[in-house]
């Protein structure tokens, strides 16, 4: 990204609600009172703000890209840990000790049950006070734990359970000491691969 850093732009970037306002105002006055033609002053002020827009757009795109990359890497790591656990299980291994790490273990497969609430009549539920801009499902879930509120909501909602399987994963148990240095054997194995 190539940007121009105008002094006014830098002054704007250092603005905060608690300080630098007077400094910025004085600098703007200097610009307005300078001997430059009005159109140069106008362009300078506008271009300073436009360069900030460019930086903001650039950062927005970078954040989007990094967020997508982070999600992809997290999914790849989860899949990798599941495949590694499955592979170790095939060899009958449930724990391996190391020198750079304490050990590798396999977390057991788990089944989770998730409560699903389907609002049959959103208008009636909102009239009962469970509303943000739509039905406040979090408040509805909390209300279901109280008998009188449950009875009030029951005719307007359906509750079902959804089961999810979390596959076994490899767990890396790190050593507690700060010197997690790979041994010569580990380095050689990695180099040979």
N- to C-terminal separation? 37 Å
Helix content: 40-55%
CA radius of gyration is: 30 Å
- What number of domains? 2
Largest sheet: 3 strands, antiparallel
Q: Secondary-structure element sequence? A: HHHEEEHHHEEH
The total of beta strands comes to 5
Query: Order of strands side by side in the largest beta sheet?
Result: 1-2-5
Architecture blueprint of SSEs:
Layout: H1 7-13, H2 21-33, H3 38-90, E1 95-97, E2 103-107, E3 110-119, H4 122-127, H5 137-143, H6 147-153, E4 157-166, E5 169-173, H7 184-192
Antiparallel strand pairs: 1-2, 2-5, 3-4
Helix pairs in contact: 1-3
Would you mind describing this structure in some detail?
It is built from seven helices and five strands. The protein is α+β, with helices and mostly antiparallel strands. The protein folds into two domains: 1-93; 94-175, no CATH class. The strands form two sheets. Strands 1-2-5 form a three-stranded antiparallel sheet, with helices on one face. The chain has a two-stranded antiparallel ribbon with strand order 3-4. Helix 1 (7-13) crosses helix 3 (38-90). The relative contact order is 0.11.
